[in-house]
Design brief:
three-stranded antiparallel β-sheet; binds FE2/S2 (inorganic) cluster; flat; mainly beta; 38% strand; 0% helix; single chain
Length: 63
Amino acid sequence: MEDSSVKIEVKHNGPLTISGKCVIINTDGTETIKEGRFSLCRCGLSNKKPFCDGSHKTLTHDL
Ligand code: FES
């Protein structure tokens, strides 16, 4: 039986790493289907929001 659960891992001073299949509803209402492993920005600095682009590495404070 296939495991359809989604795992969300909160990385220390980094993104939310998602494993599984989910639908992201964008601010304009469009939907993006993502499957596998990807990261969502939680620092607000990414230029590819809602996805993490590594910009959190420049943070000088804890998230
Ligand atoms: S958490 Fe990585 S760019 Fe924001």
